[in-house]
Design a protein that fits this description.
By secondary structure, this protein is α+β, with helices and mostly antiparallel strands. The protein folds into two domains: about 120 residues, no CATH class; about 100 residues, Trna Endonuclease, Chain: A, domain 1 (3-Layer(aba) Sandwich), CATH 3.40.1350. The chain is about 40% helix and about 10% strand. Strand 4 and strand 5 form a beta hairpin. Helix 2 packs across helix 8. The longest helix is centred in the N-terminal third of the chain and has 23 residues.
Length: about 250
């Protein structure tokens, strides 16, 4: 489903969803407020957060709510097409559509969710903050870091290699792990693999933290994070794994 929509289409659909379902939509996706939703959803689909707000406002005159919207502005043609094609969707189906291009491999996740219990505490909003939104933010702003200027960016988010991005310039390189926080402070956790790679690469490893999605996103970065002002505490969890075997 995701690939049939452009980033603009996704942004318009999100604006339509937020206009039509308002607080009910925010609650379903796990957002604490509308500014948080604009920030997280905007970065997740590769547009400015203000674009999500503008599309919502443009659709507001077509749905009952307390906002005035853009009553004096004619609906743009490409927005009108989205309105005509999707405004009749019910809440459940529209929510599923939005989730389909926010969550990677959502069709597979839906299937497995019918088989085994999922952790309901992991809302869409929380998952995007610690994943897609923070990563898309990094893609936009990484070049503002002096050390990364004129470096080529390669996405490694799906490789499970201990970092999210590799930046290269000739034989020089940096590996970057991106983390996201809802507020300006909070807990940052590194996996055992991330910690191992950071320890090996030292100054060539950067921890890039995107903060304050709840209001105005900003960032901090730490080269050689294990030897920086940050203090990491090791935590261990025992996991019992059950296997079933047979003979042929």
């Amino acid at each position: 489903m995701e690939n049939i929509f452009s980033n603009r289409d996704k942004a318009i659909l999100i604006g339509l969803y937020l206009s039509k379902f308002d607080d009910e939509g925010l609650k379903e996706l796990g957002f604490d407020g509308i500014n948080q939703a604009f920030n997280i959803l905007g970065y997740s689909v590769g547009v400015k957060p203000s674009s999500i707000k503008n599309y919502r406002d443009e659709f507001d005159p077509y749905f009952p709510n307390l906002r005035k919207g853009w009553h004096k502005r004619t609906l743009r043609e490409y927005c009108k097409k989205i309105l005509d094609d999707f405004a009749s969707l019910n809440f459940r189906d529209f929510t599923e559509l939005i989730k389909s291009f926010l969550i990677q491999n959502y069709d597979i996740e839906k299937l497995t969710g019918k088989i085994e219990k999922k952790d309901k505490s992991e809302s869409v909003a929380k998952r995007l903050i610690t994943g897609k939104s923070a990563e898309e933010y990094f893609k936009i702003y990484y070049s503002t870091v002096n050390q990364f200027k004129n470096y080529e960016l390669k996405d490694a988010t799906n490789l499970a290699c201990g970092f999210d991005f590799k930046l290269s310039q000739n034989t020089n390189f940096y590996c970057v792990e991106v983390k996201g926080l809802n507020l300006n402070s909070g807990n940052i956790a590194m996996t055992e693999k991330e910690f191992f790679v950071a320890n090996k690469l030292k100054r060539q490893y950067c921890l890039f933290v995107v903060m304050n999605f709840a209001e105005t996103p900003n960032h901090k970065f730490f080269f050689d994070p294990l030897n920086s002002d940050l203090t990491f505490k090791k935590t261990e969890r025992k996991i019992i794994q059950i296997n079933y075997s047979t003979l042929l």
